[in-house]
């Protein structure tokens, strides 16, 4: 199924002849479809962006489309499509029940972690967030940071294959700083929360 969709995307690009920033006219709708149905990997769109506009701008486009898609899916599942989505994906969610518990406990930090690493499909992350108690503002921030982390990491891994001549040392150093900063904030908030429960603050 995934290979068929990717072939269809290639044919669509060939027919429309869209390139450069105009690639967004195709990839934004595709990102929304991917966000709801997960019928092809989001990495396909990242590769399309990088191929069309280069590594740096391609990663930015992928981050923006991924975040927009995550927001639309979250709002759709929370307010309009929760029942049909639950009928389709409810059984699969049982497999990730522990992550739902982590999401309820740690909120945005679990979403950032899940979006960074390919532990579960993006559409399930959005749906699990929609049925959790997380607030819209918190979800937006978690998606911005989580998608940024995912795209950044993918760019580092894939650039050696897509653009082997590209120097990614700056991307690597800044990504390490980014991850260390997020980890530090998480640990600090965790300790602050424990101290507050003990009456320390």
What are its keywords?
transmembrane helix, disordered C terminus, 201 residues, TVP38/TMEM64 family membrane protein, cell membrane, globular, VTT_dom, mainly alpha
Overview of the structural elements:
- By secondary structure, the protein is an all-alpha fold.
- It has one domain.
- 80% of the residues lie in helices and 0% in strands.
- It is built from 10 helices and no strands.
- The protein is globular, with a radius of gyration of 18 Å.
- The N and C termini lie far apart (54 Å).
- The C terminus is likely disordered.
- It is found in: Cell membrane.
- It is a multi-pass membrane protein.
- Belongs to the TVP38/TMEM64 family.
- This is TVP38/TMEM64 family membrane protein.
In short, what is this structure?
The chain crosses the membrane at residues 22-48, 55-81, 106-127, 139-162, 168-188. Helix content is 80%, strand content 0%.
Strand content: under 5%
> Roughly how many Å is the radius of gyration?
18 Å
What structural category arises from helix and sheet content? mainly alpha
The overall strand count is 0
Characterize the largest beta sheet: strand count, sense, and whether it forms a barrel.
Answer: none
Whole-number count of domains: 1
Total of helices: 10
Sketch the topology as an H/E string, one letter per element.
HHHHHHHHHH
Return residue spans where pLDDT drops below 50 for at least 5 consecutive residues: 195-201
Residue-averaged pLDDT, rounded? Answer: 80
Distance between the termini: 54 Å
Helix content: over 70%
Shape: globular
Pfam family, one: VTT_dom
Organism: Paenibacillus eucommiae
Transmembrane segments: 22-48, 55-81, 106-127, 139-162, 168-188
Subcellular location: Cell membrane
